[in-house]
Amino acid sequence: EEPPGQIPDVSGARVRGLGGSGRSTGFARSAARAGAGMRRFPRWLRWTTSVLVLALAAWLLWRQLRGLDPAQVQSALASLPPTAIVASIAATAISFACLAAYERLATEWVAPGRIPRTVAWRSGLVAHALANTLGFHPVTAVALRLDRYRAHGVDGASLAKIVAAIGACVAVGVLAILVAAGGWWVGVLDLAGAAS
């Protein structure tokens, strides 16, 4: 049993009820070690690596978009109702707000009072945007978190716990959406059956 007021050690915990096997926590530890290892390299090398990664991402994006006709894209967007575009933008904003909230909850749980609220929110938004856009989470999101949070006394082990907690929050959120969607679909089928 943990002493009162002490944060439990969840570095080896598994996410139960979600099919967790402890792999997400192991990944978080490996990612934190990768981020910490990057700090040992010279600053110019880290900057060069970042520029190369961004250049590679830009090239891949260009390769995917070069076959698109701007006129066709504009026509497709014009065919959509404005409410659908506004709803998509709102859903994206809500999604990133939820991810930033997960970041804040995780940092406050693992390192209470050490990371300012604005730092956690801003770091969460940027980290998730980078990870979802560029991919390769250990080099992008985890390295950014380590760079931002180490100034507030967060080491690699604590960062691994933060990343694992965020992953658990995301998994629970996805499960909640699936359950809500399933319940809505069952309700629709019941109404259709009653109408027939």
Helicity level: over 70%
**Annotation, overall tally of beta strands:** 0
Q: Could you tell me the mean pLDDT?
A: 75
Strand content: under 5%
SSE ordering: HHHHHHH
Structural class: mainly alpha
Please summarize the sheet with the most strands. none
* Integer-rounded radius of gyration: 21 Å
* Low-pLDDT windows of residues: 1-24
Distance between the termini: 57 Å
Shape: flat
Q: What is the helix tally?
A: 7
Task: Describe this entry's structure for a reader.
By secondary structure, the chain is mostly helical. The chain has helices spanning 23-38, 43-65, 70-79, 82-110, 117-134, 141-149, 156-195. Helix 1 crosses helix 7. It is flat and about 70 Å long.
